[in-house]
Specification:
Chain lengths: 276, 367
């Protein structure tokens, strides 16, 4: 009986926390799908309720900063800025977990230290460097910075995952006749798929949601990324909250779909490897 | 099929830990040899050096006529079965077994026929399309063995392959592996910490301790004539009794004198024990060579001794007695009909023809 009460309290607490968590999002959704006039007394006022997708259409086809173009631009940056660091860091993580080489420990400490570096601290050096390289207002510059920023944490993440895979599996492949490269691509990589997918989902979301680095490096109106466009949708004399909310939801849809689609792998990747 | 020779092989890890010390071992063609010893004795390291998974610090390893010290594992023509099976989790059973053949560029039809034949031998034909996670422990073990036999290697290496199975399955797989070896006639090196596995499977047994080979011999040789106290204690269950004793001369005969009894040394053993007269030795006698006097056929005064029963463990077909003789604890494996009961005194009879004696300092067998 006591256990039942305990469970009930747990359940109720979980529901309360979940509700508190979701309320801002419900507010955002309501603001996006209702006409401006109905929101003046607060979105929680449901006396009059009309639903509309007009805000979404307007945000997508905005006359000055269309989100459609922003989404395309964001994809152009986010896809390579996910794939490249994943490729490099997966190999690096594997190297750290499997090979013994002289600077191994020092290098790994350096990587962990880099994880603690705040982005704001290196904003100016990044701008100067990219300026010298002629990569300001160029997606390549942004992709390079995101790649460099992603490699340390993905290396760390992948290295930790690889250490959970029994070495015996790779030794068996070695005896079976596989070379180091073959072992990596045919054995380690397929086993590490859940971790790679998790890292990719996180990196993609990070790049997709980034505002700061894009703000430093990209400024031409037609090159602006999706995140940069939302604040520009705010008028000078009038703030169309419905439009802003709809744009924010559209922006969120991409990472949410990525997570939903990859959920199966994502959970596995976070738990670690198991033969069971 | 090939011989395997280890000559003065040493393995030192990171310049400090000496895992294997000066191991010399000649394994004959088609032989099933078992490396046995407690954890950390260097048996797995030795096996891994033969496999090429560990570098050799000193010495030479030959497979057939070829020195393989610097040969890659894949080029040694060996196959290995790992303790945790080490199956490729993302591949089906068929793909697991075919992987090695594919890498060696065997034609497709040859791969197919070899995998199917191995699957037939191991009775896993119906599992070929399954992934390892859909298999039980015993089935995974069979697949791991299958992966090894399809390649038809010169040498099989087994690293404690049965230790993850339950007791019943272990006994069954033990017999199957032995049968498989008789059928394939491939040289096999088998590592285990289980002395029963070693005794039942090996043509010869290599007993290791702290990286040093203690003794090499057939199961019966190491059981009947252990080279030192460690081997005597490691082989046999329950382990041999070791009792501090002195060799004395009395009534024109030699006797073993302990804190609790005096037993006469048989005449054929006097020659070797004679020089130890009035010196301390370690007297060894196996529990199965001690009998309850009530059921002993050759009970005489000079091989009978009185003890106090401490614990009785009935095993069904026999009983283990833990008894106290003077200050020494002794285990005896006696007839199940024994009337021994804790706290009471009783007479036990030792078969002194099967006695052992070890030098107190070196712990080496005296005879």
């Amino acid at each position: 009986m006591k256990k039942r009460y305990g469970e009930l309290i747990h359940n109720i607490s979980a529901w309360i926390i979940a509700l508190i968590w979701i309320i801002p999002f419900v507010g955002l959704l309501m603001t996006a799908i209702r006409p401006m006039g109905e929101l003046l007394n607060g979105w929680w006022n449901f006396k009059v309720l009309h639903l509309t997708l007009k805000n979404f259409v307007n945000a997508w086809n905005h006359p000055n900063v269309p989100l459609s173009q922003g989404t395309m631009n964001s994809l152009i940056v986010a896809i390579p800025a996910t794939v490249i660091p994943i490729l490099i860091a997966t190999m690096a993580g594997y190297g750290f977990s499997r090979y013994r080489f002289p600077t191994r420990k020092g290098l790994f400490i350096l990587i962990v230290l880099m994880l603690a570096l705040p982005q704001q601290m290196i904003a100016v050096p990044i701008f100067n460097l990219m300026n010298k390289l002629g990569l300001i207002d160029n997606y390549l510059g942004l992709i390079i910075v995101h790649t460099a920023w992603g490699i340390p944490w993905i290396t760390f993440f992948m290295r930790n995952f690889f250490t959970t895979i029994p070495v015996a599996v790779e030794e068996a492949a070695r005896i079976d006749g596989a070379s180091d490269t073959r072992i990596f691509f045919s054995i380690a990589l397929p086993i590490a798929t859940p971790a790679i997918v998790s890292a990719a989902a996180l990196q993609f979301t990070w790049v997709w949601s980034d505002f700061f680095l894009a703000l430093i490096l990209v400024y031409s109106p037609d090159k602006l990324l999706a995140t940069q466009r939302i604040p520009l949708m705010r008028g000078v004399y009038f703030v169309n909250w419905g439009l802003l909310s709809a744009a924010a939801i559209l922006l969120m849809l991409v990472p949410i779909s990525v997570y939903t689609f990859l959920q199966k792998y994502y959970v596995k990747g976070m738990i670690g490897w198991s033969s069971k | 099929m090939a011989t395997v020779n280890l000559e003065h092989v040493t393995k030192i890890y990171e310049g400090k830990v000496e895992a294997v010390k000066d191991a010399t071992l000649d394994i004959k063609d088609k032989e099933f040899i078992v490396l046995v010893g407690p954890s950390g004795c260097g048996k797995t390291t030795t096996l891994r050096m033969v496999a090429g998974l560990e570098e050799i610090t000193k010495g030479t390893i030959r497979i057939g006529d070829r020195v393989v010290n610097d040969v890659e594992p894949k080029d040694r023509d060996i196959a290995m079965v790992f303790q945790n099976y080490a199956l490729y989790p993302h591949m089906t059973v068929y793909q697991n077994m075919a992987f090695g053949l594919k890498l060696r560029k065997f034609p497709k039809h040859e791969i197919e026929s070899r995998v199917r034949e191995a699957a037939r031998i191991l009775n896993i034909e119906e599992l070929l399309d399954r992934k390892p996670k859909q298999l039980s422990g015993g089935q995974r073990q069979r697949v791991a063995v299958g992966r090894a036999i399809v390649r038809n290697p010169k040498v099989f290496l087994f690293d404690e392959p049965l230790s993850n199975l339950d007791a019943k399955l272990r006994v069954q797989m033990r017999a199957e592996l032995k049968k498989l070896h008789q059928r394939l006639e491939t040289t096999a090196i088998y590592v285990t910490h289980d002395q029963v596995e070693a005794m039942t499977m090996g043509d010869r047994i290599v007993i290791l301790r702290d990286g040093v080979i203690q003794q090499v011999g057939t199961p019966l040789e190491v059981y009947l004539h252990p080279g030192n106290r460690f081997v005597a204690g490691f082989i046999g269950s329950p382990p041999m009794n070791f009792i501090p004793a002195t060799v004395i001369s009395k009534n024109s005969a030699f006797w073993v004198k302990t804190s609790g009894f005096e037993l006469k040394i048989p005449e054929d053993k006097v020659e070797k024990l004679g020089p130890y007269k009035d010196k301390e030795i370690i007297f060894g006698i196996r529990p199965e060579n001690i009998y309850d006097k009530m059921f002993a056929v050759a009970a005489q005064k000079e091989n009978t001794f009185k003890v106090k029963v401490d614990v009785v463990e009935p095993m069904g077909n026999e009983a283990y007695l833990h008894v106290l003789s003077g200050s020494d604890l002794i285990t005896a494996r006696v007839d199940f009909r024994t009337k021994a009961s804790p706290g009471e005194e009783m007479d036990l009879v030792a078969d002194m023809n099967l006695m052992h004696a070890f030098d107190k300092q070196t712990e080496k067998a005296i005879m």
